[in-house]
Design a protein that fits this description.
FAD/NAD(P)-binding domain, 8-stranded mixed beta sheet, 3 domains, globular, alpha/beta, D-Amino Acid Oxidase, Chain A, domain 2, binds flavin-adenine dinucleotide
C-alpha cells in the first residue's frame, strides 16, 4: 500500500492554486513581529569579544557573555538584521534534545549519553528561566508534542516511545479522538522537554536584553574576512575594522569565514506554509484542543503547530539541496514544494478544504553529517564556531553558545568534554560531487518511506561512515 503522503498530488489542482494564490513569500513570524533595524558599524572598534551573526547562536553568545562577565566589551556584527534568516523563519518547536533525538545521540555519542541528557535538561530549563528573568514574551508554551504514526509499520515505534517516556499509548481510535485526521494510526503525547515559541519574538527579546546588558549590536554590517592580529583577531567590515581578543562565529548555513569550518555543513532548504486563522467551527472540526505541536514519524516528516491566533503552521517533508550549495533569496520560494505541502495539509485535515494560506516561505538549515551541532575552536583558542544544527536549533543553540564561550575562556567544563566539542563531523564533499550524491541520498530516503521505513543499500553504507540524511 502506498504511504499516506505518497506522490502524486491528490487534491484538486484548482483548490491548491486558490489556497496558495494570496500567500506572501515571507516568514509569517517576521511579518507578525517586525523589529526596527539597528545602525551599521561606522567606526573602527576594539572589543574583548566579537560575535559574527545575529541569529539565536549569536544572540545567546552575547547574552551569556555579558551575564558571565558584565565588564566584558562585546560587539555583535550582523550582515542584515537580527533574525532575518533561520531564527526568524523556523517552526518554533523548542526541544531539549542536543543531539537531534535520542537515537541520533546514541549513534554518534554513545559514551556521552548520560551527560548529554543532564546538560539538555539544564539548558532547556535555563532558557525558560531566562525568558522569565528578563520578561521576554516569546509566546512560550510548554505544550509537548504529539508524535504520530501515519503508517502501520511506525506503530511499534510509537508504542516503544510511549513506554520509554511513561506516557499513554494512543491507538488509532484514541489518537483520532484527540486530533481528527483520517491518516493517524497511533500516537503519543510527549510531554517533557518540548515547548512552542514564536521564533521572531524570541529573537526580538534576546536582542533587547543584549542591548540592555551593554552589547553593541551593528546590523547591515557583514564581516568580509578575519585575520590574526597580535594575540587577537581583526575583522573586516567594509572599510572598517573591529579588533577583538576573541571571536565567536555564529554564521549558520552562510559561507564560513574559517577554512576549517568550510566543508562541515551544507545548506538544505526547508519549507513552511501558514494558514489563515481557523474559525471556532474549523478548530472544533479537527479537535486539537490542547496546543501541542504535532510531527509524524516518516523519514520525510511533517511538523505542524498552532499560532497564538489559531493558524496552522505546516512544514517539512522536502529537504532541498540546491545545486552549488549556496544560500540565496531565490531559494526562499519553491512552488513545487508549497503545492505538495498544501496537498499534504488537506490529506491530513480534509475538513479544512478551502482554508487558504497567507504565508509560504523557506529557509536554509545547516546540515552536518552527524545531523547535529558541533562546536570547536581554532587559531589557538582565539576563534570558536558552532554549526550544524540540522533543523533543530531553537533550543540547542543556547547550548552551542555556552560551549563557544567555555572554549574561548579556556574553561574545562562538562560541555567542552563532550565528543561534540572535541571532534568534528565527517566533511561533506564539495561540488560538483555534492549535488548528485545528495540527490541520491534524498531519493533513497523517499524510497525508505515507501518501503516500510527500511533503509536501502545506500543509506546503510552512509550509516557505516557515520553520515546521515533525513528531513
Ligand atoms: C523553515 C525552517 C524551520 C525550522 N524549524 C525548526 C523548529 O521547529 N525547531 C528547531 O529547533 N529548529 C528549527 N529550524 C532550525 C533553526 O531555525 C536553526 O537551527 C537556528 O535558527 C539556527 O540559528 P543560527 O543563529 O545558527 O542561524 P541564523 O538564524 O541563520 O543566523 C545566522 C546569522 O548570521 C548572519 N551572518 C552570516 N554570515 C555573516 C557574516 N559574514 N557577517 C555578518 N553576519 C553574518 C546571517 O545574516 C544570519 O542572520 C528551522 C529552520 C528553518 C529554515
Amino acid at each position: 500500500m502506498p504511504s499516506a503522503y505518497a506522490p502524486p498530488i491528490r487534491t484538486d489542482r484548482r483548490l491548491i492554486d486558490e489556497a496558495l494564490a494570496g500567500a506572501r513569500n515571507r516568514s509569517f513570524w517576521i511579518d507578525d513581529s517586525p523589529i526596527p533595524a539597528l545602525d551599521p558599524l561606522r567606526n573602527d572598534l576594539t572589543a574583548d569579544l566579537a560575535i559574527v551573526g545575529g541569529g539565536y547562536v549569536g544572540l545567546w553568545t552575547a547574552l551569556l557573555a555579558k551575564e558571565r562577565r558584565p565588564d566584558r566589551a562585546v560587539v555583535l556584527l550582523e550582515g542584515r538584521t537580527a533574525g532575518w534568516a533561520a531564527s526568524g523563519r523556523n517552526g518554533g518547536f523548542m526541544e531539549s534534545s542536543l543531539t537531534h533525538g535520542d537515537s541520533n545521540g546514541a549513534l554518534h555519542f554513545p559514551d556521552d549519553l548520560e551527560s548529554l541528557a543532564e546538560l539538555a535538561r539544564e539548558n532547556f530549563e535555563e532558557i525558560a528561566a531566562t525568558l522569565t528573568r528578563y520578561g521576554i514574551d516569546a509566546e512560550y508554551e510548554r505544550t509537548g508534542m504529539l508524535q504520530i504514526a501515519t503508517e502501520e509499520y511506525q506503530v511499534a515505534d510509537i508504542r516503544e516511545q510511549a513506554e520509554n517516556e511513561g506516557e499513554e499509548f494512543l491507538d488509532r481510535q484514541a489518537i483520532r479522538k484527540k486530533v481528527a485526521s483520517p491518516l493517524y494510526e497511533a500516537g503519543v503525547h510527549l510531554r517533557s522537554g518540548i515547548a512552542m515559541v514564536h521564533p521572531m519574538k524570541l529573537v526580538a527579546g534576546l536582542r533587547r536584553v543584549c542591548l540592555e546588558l551593554g552589547v553593541q549590536i551593528f546590523e547591515h554590517s557583514p564581516v568580509r574576512s578575519l585575520s590574526k592580529d597580535g594575540d587577537g583577531v581583526a575583522l573586516r567590515v567594509g572599510d572598517r575594522t573591529v579588533r577583538a581578543r576573541r571571536v565567536a562565529l555564529a554564521t549558520n548555513a552562510f559561507p564560513a569565514l574559517l577554512k576549517r569550518a568550510e566543508l562541515l555543513t551544507i545548506p538544505v532548504y526547508d519549507y513552511v506554509l501558514m494558514s489563515e486563522p481557523l474559525s471556532a467551527e474549523q478548530r472544533a472540526s479537527i479537535g486539537w484542543q490542547e496546543r501541542y505541536g504535532i510531527a509524524d514519524s516518516s523519514r520525510q516528516f511533517h511538523y505542524y503547530r498552532l499560532s497564538a491566533d489559531d493558524r496552522i503552521l505546516f512544514g517539512g517533508y522536502d529537504a532541498v539541496y540546491h545545486r552549488g550549495g549556496r544560500v540565496s533569496a531565490k531559494f526562499d520560494s519553491r512552488q513545487e514544494t508549497f503545492e505538495k505541502l498544501a496537498d499534504h495539509f488537506y490529506r491530513t485535515f480534509p475538513q479544512l478544504e478551502g482554508t487558504r494560506f497567507t504565508h509560504a516561505w523557506g529557509g536554509a538549515i545547516d546540515m552536518s553529517a552527524r545531523l547535529t551541532a558541533h562546536t570547536a575552536s581554532a587559531w589557538g583558542g582565539r576563534v570558536a564556531f558552532s554549526n550544524g544544527y540540522t533543523g533543530l536549533g531553537v533550543g540547542a543553540t543556547r547550548f552551542g553558545a555556552a560551549t563557544m564561550l567555555d572554549l574561548l575562556d579556556g574553561a574545562d567544563t562538562a560541555r567542552t568534554r563532550l565528543k561534540m566539542a572535541r571532534t568534528l563531523p565527517t566533511p561533506i564533499p564539495p561540488e560538483p560531487i555534492a549535488y548528485p550524491a545528495i540527490q541520491a541520498a534524498r531519493a533513497a530516503v523517499a524510497r525508505a518511506d515507501e518501503n516500510g521505513g527500511r533503509d536501502g543499500a545506500l543509506l546503510k553504507t552512509m550509516g557505516l561512515f557515520g553520515i546521515g540524511f533525513d528531513t
